[in-house]
Amino acid sequence: MSKQKQTKSKQQPVAEPPTAPEATAPVEVEQAAVVSEPQAEPVAESPVAEPEPEPAIEEEADASVVQAAEDGKLSELAARIEAMLLASDEPLTPSRLSTLAGATRKQTRDAVAALNAAYEAGGHSFRIEEIAEGVQMLTLGRYNDLLEQLLAVRKDSKLSQAALETLAVVAYKQPVTRADIEIVRGVACGEVLRSLMEKRLVKIVGRAEILGRPMLYGSTRRFLEVFGLRAIEDLPKAEALTDPDKKDLGPREEVQNAK
Predict the structure, then answer these.
(1) CB within 10 Å: which end of the chain, N or C, has fewer?
(2) Quick check: 126 and 140 in contact, CB under 8 A?
């Protein structure tokens, strides 16, 4: 945004610099004719409403729009959204997608549902999924082995066992201090944490209110993208990880990032 131009003001006598305002300033009351008249009580500030979380983009869509997509008739809006998702290398939030497409949230939601219906009806190997508080084009999980062979992932690009253990502690116990991570793992983890931060999987989220105020670590949006999670709450439950008989290890095991 361009900076607002400053307008020239008339010359005024130089005023003394204002003093710092106090934390709670009483409301000024007009001077009354009678000195003994009681002053009005300060007006209480109205509480600031917390911003509501952004709604998911794939909610119940218009049945007629979905049916038209299944019949092979996509709207111009759906085509525009498809083009943006194909060109983007990261998830797009519902608000950004709607703004760029020039449509409302409901129209965008219907278009995404129509695209997924068309992909399913046509037997495509990909679909649009919610991930990292946005939506992204992902391939289906049954093609993972094929894509791994195609991409020939190098061993040095994979996370070591120590890095995976450290990342798991951060993800499940965040915000967490380095000392707490080392207590869980039983070894020093300074170099591992530095490596995870360089890979943009872990970040510093604050400082603990204890002696020395050590730094607190947490996961990043990149972490959600890499592991195919919509939000940190979608992490597999600890019970599912310890019990091999439970197959429900996560909500995103059917899709894999198309990269």
Answers:
(1) N
(2) yes
